[in-house]
Amino acid sequence: MQLENIRFILTDIEGTTTSVSFVYDVLFPYFRIHIQRLKDLMNNPQVVDAFEQTIELAAKDGITIQTTDEIIKQLLDWSLADKKITPLKTLQGILWADGYESGEIKGHVYEDVLPAMKNWKALGLDLGVFSSGSIAAQKLIFGYSERGDLRPYFSAYFDTTTGSKRETETYQKIVEIINIKPEQILFLSDIREELECAQKAGYQTIQLVRKGTEKNWNNTITAFNEIQINNGKI
User: Fold this and answer.
1) Would residue 5 be called left, alpha or beta, if left means φ above 0 and alpha means ψ between -120 and 50 degrees?
2) What is the rounded distance in angstroms from the CA atom of residue 212 to the CA atom of residue 170?
3) How many other β-carbons are positioned within 10 Å of the β-carbon of residue 234?
4) Does residue 55 come out as left (phi exceeding 0), alpha (psi in the -120 to 50 range) or beta?
5) pLDDT digits (tens, 9 = 90+) for 4-62
6) Nearest Cα to Cα of residue 137 among 18, 44, 38
7) What are the chain's domains?
8) Sign of the four-CA dihedral 82, 138, 34, 27
9) pTM over 0.85
10) Residue 208: which H helix or E strand, with range?
């Protein structure tokens, strides 16, 4: 697929750079198995803040939480339901960090991703990540990946603290942050609803159709190396 006038490539992770099975079969189970360890991390301000957010968010749903065990149970329930909730994502990232640093976890990245990113950087493009997983979790996947430390390739990271991936306003905020015209941004994702919002914000968009993804967008590819960018430099 030939594209022109691209200055910034923004990519999703799950189902785009990384297999869905890695997230569901490795990361999520690791968090659930080790979730009780959060009780021993109450000297971490991020954990304390995430617990307070959990209590507040649960209260909005009519759930009263009074004990640490109830907080843990609520987080476990959200995890099992795959909720895209900021305090859950924060705490997942904290526990996953131990797994990555110990070598128990290696971030999965499709083999076509790194060569494409090298080419894009050689063209002078900037790369960013936008995932529902926390920024800390994003950096762990790429920092401790099977392909080595890929963090130097990225200049920006975005998560749910910027906004929902299924709201056009979020993509407009990203435009303001990176200060690049929306039509010069290419967004890569496997999810139609995300691509729709990015397109409404003026982005160019491509759907990654990896294993298990339904092809339901006008521009689709199966691997990063199918993207050819011509900015007058190749």
Assistant:
1) left
2) 27
3) 9
4) alpha
5) 899 999 999 999 999 999 999 999 999 999 999 999 999 999 999 999 999 999 999 99
6) 18
7) 2-18+107-230 (3.40.50.1000), 24-102 (1.10.720)
8) positive
9) yes
10) strand 204-208
Give yes or no for a contact between 142 and 170, defined as CB atoms under 8 angstroms apart. no
User: How many other β-carbons are positioned within 10 Å of the β-carbon of residue 121?
Assistant: 16
Burial class of residue 38, CB neighbours in 10 A (0-12, 13-18, 19+): buried
Question: Comparing C-alpha atoms, which of 14, 32, 31 is closest to residue 23?
Answer: 14
Residue among 156, 130, 59, 144 nearest 101 (CA): 144
Cβ 90 vs Cβ 134: under 8 Å: yes
Structure tokens at 138: 């994003």
Dihedral (CA of 86, 33, 46, 138) sign: negative
Q: What are phi and psi of 141, to 5 degrees?
A: -60, -45
Which residue type does 126 have? D
Q: How far apart are CA 65 and CA 61, in angstroms?
A: 11
